[in-house]
Structure formats: structure tokens, C-alpha cells
Amino acid sequence: MILALETSCDDTCAAVVSGDGHVLSNVISSQEVHDAYGGVVPEIASRQHLQLVNLVVDDALARAHVTLDDVRAIAVTRGPGLVGALLVGLATAKAIAVARGLPLIPVDHLQGHVAANFLGPDPLEPPFLCLIASGGHTFIARVEDHRSFTVLGRTLDDAAGEALDKGARLLGLPFPGGPHIERLAREGDPGAFAFPLARGVRGLDMSFAGVKTALLYAVRDLDAAGGSAGRRADLAASYQHAVVQQLAVRVERALEQTGLQQLAIGGGVAANGPLRDRLQALAPTVRIPDRALCTDNAAMIAGAARHLPPAAADQIAGLDAYATDRQAL
Ligand code: KG4
Ligand code: ZN
């Protein structure tokens, strides 16, 4: 039994996963306090994690019908993420591990997103191609084994979810904007505006700064000409189409280049209906984990930890969090 913690951004998460990869509980406490600011406020996130973390751990144990006596290892996200937020989870995990004499397994958050696919009841076996598109990250990776992945392409600027959130803001929609754009887009024409698809970005890398700026100008031009209100659905549909299309074209290219037959998709943007529909047709096997395993959660951290080595006992106290995507360094 692994108890995992994940506090890299604004969700306080704890999960219990069995040794054979079945999720026994997966508690996610979302900090809605940030919505009023239109984005996550790091200092508020850290303070909220502090208030919630013990409650969330207790809840995860209770929902799994186990106690700490049943737990054999602690897993925790070390980075990348907001350092203050990560430190709350890391300190909690260290404290439980040391007090209980349990091994502590540090996990990279992005490896966690990939490892959501390793969880039961029907784990996906490598090799596969993996698209992770969330509010903080967007990359395409080749997954050859259970311990690591190779990034084949990444966004050069905003993450796809970030682009949707910023676009939503320009359209006067609430944060986080992805689901609101999807809803509004249903009433609009995806071909109404030709937003850029970052064709100039080579290979498997992506860029969402151009489409965001194009939306800004389109809204500004419409407002100058009498108002964009009547065109909001068309704007949302065309914007979503440009984001989805860019992701899909890169995934298609990556499948061609690698010859991989299996595709997995993760991150919050994987909840997007048009993206799912578009990607479903691209490979013989397309895997999209349940929504609760796609967005930030601790079960995926346990899913990764099952295949990773624990920290040496004398290294636990000194384990530090890291802010930056390690693969980008
Ligand atoms: O993985 P996630 O929950 O958190 C991190 O950023 O790590 O992803 C959140 C992102 C937000 O940008 C949100 O707008 C986007 O996922 N999102 C969606 C949908 N649901 C969430 N984007 C498009 N369509 C959706 N249905
Ligand atoms: Zn994430």
C-alpha cells in the first residue's frame, strides 16, 4: 500500500494505491479561493495546503479503509511546481515517513502524469506516445519504460490550458476557462475565424502565444466596429479549434515519426471533448484516463512511485523541492 501526496500547485491531493496499482482512494481538494484572482496566487496556495494537508491525508486513508499501519511506502511530488506549495507536501511526507520508519519515494510531477496510465484496472504497457496538456505543461513524450520518458516536443511559451484560460479571460469567461470555452464553442462556428496554428514552429514543438494574440486583436477589432458580444461563440469555437488542431497535428506527426501504435493523453485539457474526438482516430489504441486521474492528483504520483527507488534513509531530511521542469534544463 502506498500513501501519496501531491501539492505542486493549487490542489491538495492524497491517495492510497495498492501494491498492484489499484486506486483505493484519490482525494483532491481544489482551492477555489484563487478563482477570484483569475489565476493561482502562490502564497495563498501554500497557506491553503498547510490548512488542508492533514485533513486530506486522513480522508484518503479513511476512504481506502486503511490506517497508517497498513501503509508500506510514502510517495510525494518533489517538483516541478510552486516551491512553497511543494514544500508543504514534501515536509508532510517526510514527517510521516520518518515517524513511521517508512521508505519515502520522491516523484517528478510530469512522470506522475505519464504514470496515470500505469494504474489499474487496465494499465497501459509501454511503449506509447503520451500527450500531456494542462494549465502548467504541454509536451509530447515517448514512453519506453515505467521509470522515465523522453520529451519529443514541448510548448515554447504558454501551456495549452494556459492559452485556453487566457483566451477565456479575453472573452469575459470565468477561470479556469477551458471548460467555459468548450461550452460556449458548442454554439459557434470553428471556421468563423482563421486563428494561427503555429505552422512556423518546427518539428514537434508547439506555441500558443500567437493564437492568443490573434484572439486579442480579433476581439479588439470587433469591439471597435461595434462590439464582439454577438460573435463570442464563434470566437470561442475558432480559438478552441486552433488549439486542438495544433495539438493534434503534432501528435499525428509524432506517431508517424516514432511508429508507436499506442497513444495516451493526460492533463486537464484532456477533458476537452473536441480534443478527445480528434485524437481518438489517430492511433489503434488511444488511452485517456478518468478525468480525476488526468488532472492533478496523488494517485498518479503513487502510480509512478511503484516503479521508482526510495530515497536513502539518510537523504530523506535533506530532500528539497524543485520549481523547474527538469527535462527542460
Ligand atoms: O491538469 P490541470 O487540472 O492542472 C494543471 O494545470 O496542472 O489542468 C488545468 C487546465 C486549465 O487550464 C483548464 O482550463 C483546462 O485544464 N481544462 C480544460 C477543460 N477542463 C479543464 N480545457 C479544455 N477543455 C476542458 N473541458
Ligand atoms: Zn499537472
Describe the secondary-structure layout.
Layout: E1 2-6, E2 11-17, E3 23-30, H1 42-63, E4 73-79, H2 83-100, E5 104-108, H3 109-115, E6 128-133, E7 138-143, E8 150-154, H4 160-170, H5 178-185, H6 209-224, H7 232-258, E9 262-266, H8 273-280, E10 285-287, H9 291-294, H10 299-305
Parallel strand pairs: 1-4, 4-5, 6-9, 9-10
Antiparallel strand pairs: 1-2, 2-3, 6-7, 7-8
Helix pairs in contact: 1-2, 3-10, 4-6, 4-7, 5-7, 6-7, 7-8
What does this structure look like?
This protein is of the alpha/beta class and 329 residues long. The chain folds into 2 domains: 2-116 and 294-328, 2-Layer Sandwich (Nucleotidyltransferase, domain 5); 126-288, ATPase, nucleotide binding domain (Nucleotidyltransferase, domain 5, 2-Layer Sandwich). It is built from 10 helices and 10 strands. The chain has helices spanning 42-63, 83-100, 109-115, 160-170, 178-185, 209-224, 232-258, 273-280, 291-294, 299-305, and strands at 2-6, 11-17, 23-30, 73-79, 104-108, 128-133, 138-143, 150-154, 262-266, 285-287. The strands form 2 sheets. The chain has a 5-stranded mixed beta sheet with strand order 3-2-1-4-5, with helices on both faces. A hairpin with a 5-residue loop joins strand 2 and strand 3 (23-30). Helix 4 (160-170) runs antiparallel to helix 7 (232-258). The longest helix has 27 residues, at 232-258. The site of zinc ion has 5 residues, from helix 3.
